[in-house]
Amino acid sequence: MFALSLGEICLRLGLSILIAGVIGYDREHKNRPAGIKTHMLVCVGACVIALIQKEIGFDALNIATANPKLAGVVRADDARLIAQVVSGIGFLGAGTIIVQHRAIRGLTTAASLWTVAGIGLAVGMGNYQIAITSAIAVMLVLVFLHKVIHANPMKKLEIQYRHKLETKEFIQAYFERQGIKVADVNFRVTQTETAQLYVNIYEIEIPRTLSYADVIEDISLNKNIMQIQTISL
Question: Are 158 and 199 in contact (CB under 8 A)?
Fold first, then answer.
């Protein structure tokens, strides 16, 4: 008889929980939309589908072994249910993508969910080497890659302020002092009930030694700055 033992089933489900928990911890630690439980459930769900697919294959082999005349009739496609997981996980990943102030967030988490589903399938099918190696690769990308490759993409910085000349001189002086390159700038005036507010949108590129969080914090210390935020290009 061809079949998975209860111990083997528990091993595969436990491994999928462990791997997804490690990846999900990184996402939850960074306060992303999908955390430990979501990643675990996705991985376990994919593992269950793969286990079912394995059992379907074993059932076909058992029927063919018991009834040799049916060997050419009974078939099982190992990729059929797996293909549905690969295409179906997209809806969950899409739910983690957020568009806020023209900036897109959650793409990495959506990709990690999709990858975790693939790892769950590998575990469920018993391909442990692929599953464990893939999990290590995912953790290297999520945790360590940004420490090796430090990229500061060009962004737009929207600054709302009072006292046009004084504040504009402060911003320009700060950019020059920090070595921040300004590729483009747009200007508009907003009228409130009490005063005029000026809004500059700078397209900037910052040095590797700075972060956009540092820039925002430094500029916000000026008493004339009313609001400041980054906008992804």
Answer: yes
